[in-house]
Amino acid sequence: MNLNESVALVTGAARGLGRATAIRMAKSGARVALVDKLEMELQSVREEISQGDGTAEIFVTDLLDAKAIDALAPAVMEKWGQIDIMANIAGAWYSADKSFIGEMLWENSVEEIDVMLGVNIRAPLLLCRSIIPYMIEHGQGKIFTIGGEWSDAGVGWLCYMLGKEIQKSLSSALALEVRKHNIQVYCISPGDIASEAQKGFWPEIAKVAVPPEEIAELIIFICENNAGNYMSGGSFPIGPGNIIYDFGQFITVDGKTGAVR
Predict the structure, then answer these.
(1) Are strands 55-60 and 31-36 parallel, antiparallel or unpaired?
(2) Cα–Cα distance for residue pair 225/59, rounded to 1 Å
(3) How many CB atoms lie within 10 A of CB 95?
(4) Least-confidence region, from 82-91, 154-163, 210-219, 223-232
């Protein structure tokens, strides 16, 4: 797919991988719909894209609100008349002052569970449901979801892990539903990402995590290369090689050994 003048919708675009993906999409010529509930951060992303001669518009959306999700695709269509790429980057594993990672299931509050399942499972399903009809009408589309890789079977982050594992299943099943419409579906499956949140809550892990810009490059590679048309339904792991650790174990970073938590 030629990204020049295409339209890419990126959720979670205010920070981390979503921000890196949106900026990289714009650099390749896509017009980018920046989707997040953090309006001030989205303004910063749009400004950075504009300074690089790219095009982006802000669509403030709460992904826990089904009505807001339903209104998103029509708003993007009204602006640009097409949606070629949807990158479901938004994920939930922390609040403003607390990481949900490291808690056993019975230690998670109902509110925390609702947020993790709502953003990581329900929102991507509703987004796909809403946007795919426009891709079918346009005759093409690429959908990206974000999975995850685990060395500990999700111990200490069960609800988050469930959401990411479902993204893998969504990719493989949805790819079959839409393949006759020239729409491809991919699950990018990182280990830990060196995002702002990761650096804040888990700085030692962030030192060995994959930079979000590198994951964004993989998404761009799949979009721009014809081989991507034959990879639909797959899950693509990406992360620092030969580094395996579990929460509660010890890891070595820059010659120093310490507990992950």
Answers:
(1) parallel
(2) 28
(3) 11
(4) 154-163
Give the separation between CA 58 and CA 43, rounded to whole angstroms: 7
Tell me the average pLDDT across 82-88. 97
CB 76 within 8 A of CB 9: yes
- pLDDT tens, 53-82? 999 999 999 999 999 999 999 999 999 999
Query: For residue 251, what pLDDT is reported?
Result: 39
Distance of CA 179 to the CA centre of its chain: 22
Q: What's the predicted TM-score (pTM) here?
A: 0.87
Residue type, 207: K
96-103 contacts, C-beta under 8 A, 24 or more apart = 99/197, 99/201, 99/202, 100/157, 100/159, 100/160, 101/156, 101/157, 101/160, 101/201, 101/202, 101/247, 102/156, 102/157, 102/247, 102/261, 103/156, 103/157
Q: Phi and psi at residue 234, in whole multiples of 5°?
A: -85, 160
- Which residue is associated with the tokens 């030629």? 2
Q: Please say whether the beta carbons of 201 and 216 come within 8 A.
A: no
CA atoms within 13 Å, Cβ hemisphere of 51: 7
pLDDT at 184 exceeding the cut of 50: yes
